[in-house]
Amino acid sequence: MTSRDFQQRWRERREADARIAQLGLGGLDEGDYAPSTLDRLARMPEEHVVRMHWMADLFGVGERLEGDADFQRDVGAACANCGRTGDCHRAFADPAGLTRAAAAEFCPNVPAYRRAARD
Length: 119
What we know:
Elements: H1 3-23, H2 35-43, H3 46-58, H4 62-67, H5 69-80, H6 85-91, H7 100-104, H8 110-118
Helix pairs in contact: 1-2, 2-5
């Protein structure tokens, strides 16, 4: 790796860290997540973060998501790696009509939300 390559990777890492911080998902330890997950978190659109919070509210754990950095990171990582964003987007076209059962059909965070609701 050349010095220029190293500097470019360093700049990209710092930019990704800044984008992650803007998401409000708490501090991330690079060792806890695959680089691809960190990149997806950094690039996750704000609307995904909003839907993540709506879903937490649907399961009654919105306050926990707001106040628990570990929970935020885990839920955020699952959301960032989810391949069902189209289903999520369609479901939230009418969030008032979304049920827990319907959410369980596509959201990878439903088990985490259910566990959090029991705690």
